[in-house]
Write a structure and sequence with these properties.
- A 6-stranded mixed sheet has the order 3-6-7-2-1-8.
- The chain starts with 11 loop residues before the first helix and ends in a 9-residue tail after the last strand.
- Helix 4 crosses helix 6 (134-142).
- It is globular, with a radius of gyration of 17 Å.
- The chain has 8 helices and 8 strands, in the order ααββααβααβαββαββ.
- By secondary structure, it is of the alpha/beta class.
- It has a single domain, classed as Rossmann fold, CATH 3.40.50.
- A hairpin with a 5-residue loop joins strand 1 and strand 2.
- It comes from Microbacterium rhizomatis.
Length: 240
């Protein structure tokens, strides 16, 4: 089995990302702050909004059969906090979102202790704009080891304004993976909308021999449909 090696601190690309992340964190500390969930002044996330991020792992099954677990619905406080992290660079919000990704990832692994958590790759444009990889930052805060074996084969259009079929066409064939024969993986991403990107990631991983156990995201948009399963996880269990 070819087990991929995660980036090391001596890797120039890893170092560049670490520097960008540190700068983004420093800027977020220097700027005036208000609650990302309700705009209450002088606090990054107020107790009420923090409580609204208490996760419950819920699953959806996509058309391809891929099971996707998510810790939060992408609405209300959760949606505002995720947008503040992604679009405003408020990296301190990665920690309060970490439990949602962690319980979803554990549910996706379904007891496989050696499962690799493989992030959907961030586009170069998004990395330049933000200075960090969203799901990898949250995964680190969650204590999830990340195995970066997916890469982009070609560029894609911004998915936000596209419908379900257009999203699928947009990402079709856009990802590739390094050899991962018999490696058990859980794909991780920040938000699932139609599931097109996750299905493309699963296709690319299966093509190189990986065993895709499922996928996990911080949140799922309501348009994805009614959850097909639910798993409540105690707070103590999220810090194993």
């Amino acid at each position: 089995m070819n087990v991929p090696i995660s980036p090391r601190p001596t890797d120039p690309a890893w170092l560049a990302t670490a520097v960008r992340t540190a700068l983004a964190q420093a800027m977020s500390l220097a700027l005036p702050v208000e609650c990302a969930g309700c705009d209450l002044p002088d606090v990054a996330l107020c107790p009420r909004c923090r409580a609204a991020l208490a996760p419950v792992a819920r699953s959806q099954r996509l058309g391809s059969g891929l099971a996707v677990w998510s810790g939060l619905p992408f609405e209300g406080v959760a949606a505002r906090v995720i947008r503040a992290l992604k679009e405003e660079g408020r990296t301190s919000l990665a920690r309060p979102l970490a439990d949602a990704l962690r319980i979803a990832a554990l549910a996706g692994a379904d007891g496989a202790g050696d499962a690799a958590f493989v992030p959907v790759p961030t586009s170069r444009a998004a990395l330049r704009r933000r200075g960090f990889r969203v799901v990898e930052l949250v995964a680190r805060r969650a204590g999830l080891p990340v195995t970066r074996i997916l890469t982009t084969r070609r560029g894609t259009a911004d998915q936000r304004s596209l419908g379900r079929s257009a999203r699928r066409h947009n990402v079709d064939g856009s990802l590739r993976a390094r050899p991962a024969d018999a490696l058990q993986v859980v794909i991780i991403d920040d938000v699932v909308t139609t599931g097109a990107t996750l299905e493309e990631a699963a296709r690319a991983l299966k093509a190189v021999g990986a065993v895709v156990l499922g996928a996990a995201t911080i949140a799922a948009t309501p348009r994805l449909g009614k959850p097909s399963g639910e798993r409540r996880v105690a707070a103590s269990e999220t810090h194993r």
